[in-house]
Specification:
Layout (H helix, E strand, L loop, with lengths): L1 H4 L4 E14 L2 E15 L8 E10 L2 E10 L2 E10 L6 H4 L5 E11 L1 H4 L7 E15 L4 E16 L4 E14 L1 E10 L5 E10 L7 E16 L3 E14 L2 E15 L2 H4 L27 E17 L2 E13 L4 E16 L2 E14 L5 E10 L2 E9 L4 E8 L4 H9 L9 H12 L9 H9 L3 E6 L5 E8 L4 E6 L8 E7 L4 E8 L4 E7 L5
Parallel strand pairs: 14-15
Antiparallel strand pairs: 1-2, 2-3, 3-4, 4-5, 5-6, 6-7, 7-8, 8-9, 9-10, 10-11, 11-12, 12-13, 13-14, 15-16, 16-17, 17-18, 18-19, 19-20, 20-21, 22-23, 23-24, 24-25, 25-26, 26-27
């Protein structure tokens, strides 16, 4: 049970009996496996189960009975295949062999679910399953119902929370029809779904499914490094031993905090276990191919933040390939932002990340600019996400050490002392690193703003700016007065995905309106 799910071991007590013999080519067997105090290692004592499974092979065929008892849970099932004497697997799987059986599950499902979910996942709620099995191996027939109320699913690694799950499904002939599925994310997000799973004339080998889920402003992730709220749909179809996931999602808002920007990264150490009991725990597992054809977009409000940067992005992505090997293509574009480098604040001038397969090989084309002592200095980031290259440039063109000297000390490199030149070398080296102290991030969180920054203008005055989305399409930014003589209010109204109306009102009465149009070329 542990190895199959690649999770921590199951604890408890197991005991069993087996008798089997073969006479004149016909099998007879009676096997019983009983358990007590069974639970995954990380589960609580309240999720312990006691149960029994019994398999009998005789002259009438094969029968299987199972039962489980837990805190607030009763589960039992039995199934019979009337195949007659069994000489081998082909007898049991004969298409015309009659089937019969029934199943009942009532009560809190968490203890039973703990054995079938991955580590850090949990499912709770009141389950009610009553089903009857008839027909043949080739054409099984079901009737009954399946329900779940007050359900709660959590994935600790992804930060996914699905609450208030309400599920109603019914068995009809060879199908399970999901008539209703609703849930929330514990806040304003909602989820609805429906669909059908059926077994064709070829038995389990002809399993088919068509399931649809729609979600609105649903919290898709809520981990330490990623928070995302999205609206969209997912459709899962399965036929001919192959799955397909299609649909589209619009990211309403996302907050990304790269680990290396918010705290020291944890080194990964490869461990080779020798003389492990039972051999290696890693076994080759056969997986069903599930293809992807999914679109993800965000007109704005993807915030990527760290101690040294605060940026906002938009994106259009296509995800194809398979679940095991996804292929991501598209463009991520910078909307606005700042970065603290060389002890100075740079504003994003342009930013474009192009993906064409492996996200680690995404191509970077980012430029940040700052006016400094008669030059416009730029920090350029090129290369790939896995191997970025950072360089300094300026207008007019100057060597990197000269640009850095004017930024850091306000003097040319020729006028620096030995100590200042050492500090300059350290500043250049720091372009690819940064401190974990983020006071602006803390202030932004306290004020509830979407963006917040502090900079020094051309007159040497400190300017504080903060912005917030008033609606999905209207962005308001307020900037304090610097040497310009008055505070500034900026409003950006996205009329369409490509056209925006920009307005600016300064404290001295100066006002302006502009229309911005942009497009992307592949």
């Amino acid at each position: 049970m542990s190895l199959r799910r690649a999770r921590s071991p199951v604890i408890g007590q197991l005991s069993g009996d087996l008798t089997a013999n073969r006479t004149d080519g016909v099998w007879r067997a009676d096997a019983t496996l009983s358990g007590a105090g069974l639970r995954p290692l990380e589960a609580s004592d309240a999720e312990e189960l006691a149960g029994q499974v019994r398999l009998v092979v005789d002259e009438t065929g094969v029968s299987l009975t199972a039962s489980a008892e837990g805190v607030g849970l009763t589960a039992r099932a039995n199934a019979q295949i009337a195949s007659g004497p069994v000489s081998g697997p082909d007898d049991v799987m004969r298409p015309d062999a009659a089937l019969s059986g029934d199943a009942l599950v009532r009560g809190e499902i968490s203890a039973l679910a703990a054995f079938h979910l991955a580590a850090a996942q949990s499912l709770s709620g009141q389950a009610d399953l009553a089903a009857r099995l008839t027909g043949t191996v080739g054409e099984p027939r079901f009737e009954g119902s399946l329900g779940l109320e007050d359900g709660d699913f959590r994935d600790g690694r992804a930060g996914l929370v699905v609450e208030a799950i309400s599920l109603l499904a019914r068995f009809s002939e060879s199908s399970l029809i999901v008539e209703r599925l609703t849930a929330t994310d514990g806040d304003a997000g909602t989820l609805r779904g429906a669909g059908e799973v059926s077994i064709g004339s070829g038995g389990l080998g002809s399993l088919a499914a068509d399931l649809n889920v729609d979600f609105r402003r649903f919290r898709l992730a809520g981990s330490r490094d990623l928070e995302a709220i999205g609206t969209g749909d997912v459709r899962f179809r399965f036929a001919d031993q192959e799955g397909l996931i299609t649909g589209a999602a619009v990211i309403d808002r996302a907050e990304i905090r790269p680990p290396q920007a918010s705290r020291p990264s944890i080194p990964y150490i490869t461990v080779t276990e020798i003389n492990a009991p039972g051999g290696s725990r890693e076994t080759e597992r056969r997986t069903t191919p599930i293809r992807l054809d999914y679109a993800v977009s965000a007109p704005a409000r993807i915030f990527v933040r760290g101690p040294n940067f605060d940026t906002e992005w938009s994106t259009n992505l296509e995800i194809t390939g398979t679940v095991a090997a996804p292929y991501v293509s598209g463009v991520i574009t910078a909307e606005r932002g700042r970065a603290d480098m060389l002890g100075r604040v740079f504003q994003i001038e342009q930013g474009r990340v192009t993906l064409n397969g492996d996200p680690g090989e995404a191509m970077l084309d980012i430029s940040l600019a700052r006016e400094a002592r008669d030059i416009t200095a730029r920090v350029r980031v090129r290369g790939t996400a896995r191997d970025p290259r950072i360089s300094l440039a300026s207008t007019p063109a100057l060597p990197e050490d000269e640009i850095a000297a004017r930024l850091v000390f306000g003097e040319g490199a020729a006028n620096l002392s030995a100590v200042e030149y050492a500090q300059l070398a350290a500043s250049l080296a720091s372009l690819s690193g940064g401190s974990a102290f983020d006071p602006l991030g803390a202030l932004r969180s306290v004020t509830g703003l979407d963006t917040f920054g502090v900079r020094t203008d051309s007159g040497g005055q400190t300017v504080v700016a903060g912005g917030r989305y008033l609606t999905d399409t209207v962005y308001l930014e307020l900037e304090s007065a610097g040497s310009s003589g008055g505070p500034t209010t900026r409003i950006e109204w996205a009329l369409t995905r490509s056209i925006s109306l920009l307005s600016r009102l300064r404290g001295d009465g100066d006002a302006s309106v502009a229309v911005s149009w942009r497009t992307e070329y592949d």
